[in-house]
Write a structure and sequence with these properties.
206 residues; DNA-binding; mainly alpha; 10 helices; Tetracycline Repressor, domain 2; homotetramer; 2 strands; Arc Repressor Mutant, subunit A; 2% strand; 2 domains; two-stranded antiparallel sheet
DNA sequence: TATGAATGAGCCTTCATTCAT
DNA sequence: TATGAATGAAGGCTCATTCAT
């Protein structure tokens, strides 16, 4: 029973993994379905049993990978809060999460490259807002929970998030992958200060 | 003599223009050399007399277009300074230039899209640093001149520039093209404040 | 026992029906076995338990459908003869049958199209001559019976039948499906007169 | 100059010939573009320089082949009329042409098969009515000229032509290719008599 | 220099057929 | 018997690149 099912899932994962590796190495456009199939040790026709085309595969990959990342980051934050017992402020939480993400992506530059090139704000919003399935988490909910736990209130929280994410995303890309204009560790202090500045700017001061 | 030369340059420009129009409309990957040649009214073989391949063409195009933009912006700033006679502070100059660029790109979303998708910090640096040819200007020089004219001094001016550019680039892309998470005009105040914050952060206070 | 048997026959018929619908709608070549199986609610592999390939299925379908049609026509003729009690002449019988067939096919253009495209004289002869199975009738026998009941005798009756059938088949195809060069009702008088002429020509006049 | 042009035309003809041979041998559906190219000694891509797809090629082939045939037949008739000096009647002319066509097609059964399977009345009408180009003749005009030269007048001449053509086409197909229900020569007397009967039927008798 | 016909590798996709379950 | 995942050959088509003119 479950045997056939399990085999199928295993094959699906093999294809996903092969595709991910190729996409990150050579880019989506330059990866052919032949290559993916071959690397997965699967006939070309088999690919089409699992995906309608390359774009569906790509979308599922982005969705899956970025969800995983955010889930880990959120879990790490929870863990720290729970262990230390100290109440963190909003900007510290934010920085913690971003630092976590940067560290993860620094260790996996290919993932960074893949996400940077394929993850637009639109896809991001959809991915992180959509119904929570088995694996995915609703990041938006976490974000708003973080906001309400705070005493301070914020103007336009969505714009605030947007600016932080765009800033982080684009600066990391260059710093991690090309050490330009400086390595990521050198950049971090400036980056984090800028993030705090952005947050401060959106604070509603009575 | 000059005639043949002029004809050649004219043909080159025709190819560049055709390619730019197609690249912005359909993307680089989905534009074939056949299309470019046809639109330029040139035989397919002729293309190869001017460019080694599509990528060389693309790079020259980015180079050319972004130089033109910055040149305009710098000229506009000069003009304002000259006319008003008032001495502007560094951050105001920066904001002026960025505002100018954003306005230009808002009117030409295809150009924005093209630049965003193909302009990495690496290409940018190269484009804005390289020797001044007929048409290009050395933006870096302008930037450093702006810095030295100031009384204040700055830490890591290159990182500062980098962060500003990355922030502007990525936020504009989404705001102008998709109005996400808000229209560009609504976003501007936050964006400009953040830029000022970045600059402030890099100021060396004795 | 009988139950399993019945189930099997039912499955067979489901496949036949699905195939017929698809063949008539899209043509034989453009119908895949996947489609047929899916429409029949049967696994793809199951198809091969009933048919060697698509062509065998197609032949059985033609056979079955045309037999059914002729059977109906013959029955209708019998009925009229029985009811009216009048002795009909050969050519009137022929016209009656053909008129019946035309009317049926006019109401079912897809069937007409399917038969026209796939029914050659060879298949036709085989279908109408072969041993009477459960459903099929021996039309040839009926034809010869019709001939012997007549006082008049005919030269080359097979050629006569052939010419009538070919004439009717090809003219109906265009007239019913495309109203070209005229609608079937407008065509009928000419067609029937021609049939009578053909028959007359084959009469042996002492 | 003309050299390249001539070469191109030669290549076009090579492709047409190869395709015709394969189409007649195996049918249009079962002939692939790879096969055509290979047989023509041409790269696959070259095919697409001359035709958009297989159907365009098929249509041009039908058009060309059937025009050629009718042209020959009409010329032969003209020749006979001119030489003999005798005035032929309409039905004799018709039979002459049909006899000529049948004889041609008997010698070239593959052509007969190809035309029969791909030439519908619609295509026929279009092919034989369309503007006379270099190679094609306006058969319709010939037909109507034949009619007006006659003393007798005819009812519904288009239906008359239609019935003759359909009868001839479908009976020849079986008789020539399969000798069913009899060889073409044996069939001819019956066929021609039927044609005369059809014509007679359309005569307007005062 | 300029042309554009020719190439052929390589892409995406479909589908009849097999076979382990 | 029945299934349906897997196969891989084959098809249609595109396109960067070459080369004789």
């Amino acid at each position: 029973m479950g045997k056939a099912e399990a085999k199928k899932i295993h094959k699906l994962n093999t294809i996903l993994d092969s595709a991910f590796e190729l996409f990150t190495k050579q880019g989506v456009e330059k990866t052919s379905i032949s290559e993916i199939s071959e690397k997965a040790g699967v006939a070309k026709g088999t690919f089409y049993l699992y995906f309608r085309d390359k774009h569906e595969l790509r979308d599922r990959l982005i969705y899956h990978q970025s969800s995983k990342l955010f889930k880990e980051a959120a879990a790490a934050l929870d863990n720290v809060v729970a262990c230390s017992g100290v109440k963190m402020k909003f900007d510290d939480k934010m920085i913690f999460i971003i630092d976590y993400l940067i560290n993860q992506l620094s260790q996996n530059p290919l993932l960074l490259s893949f996400i940077s090139k394929n993850l637009s704000w639109g896809v991001f919003k959809k991915a992180l807002t959509s119904k929570t399935t088995d694996d995915e988490i609703d990041f938006k909910q976490i974000y708003y929970k973080m906001l309400t736990e705070e005493d301070t209130k914020f103007n336009e929280p969505e714009i605030m998030l947007f600016m932080i994410i765009e800033l982080v995303g684009s600066t990391c890309y260059s710093a991690v992958l090309y050490n330009e204009p400086a390595g990521i560790e050198e950049l971090k202090p400036y980056l984090f200060n800028t993030i705090r500045a952005i947050i401060r700017e959106h604070e509603i001061t009575e």
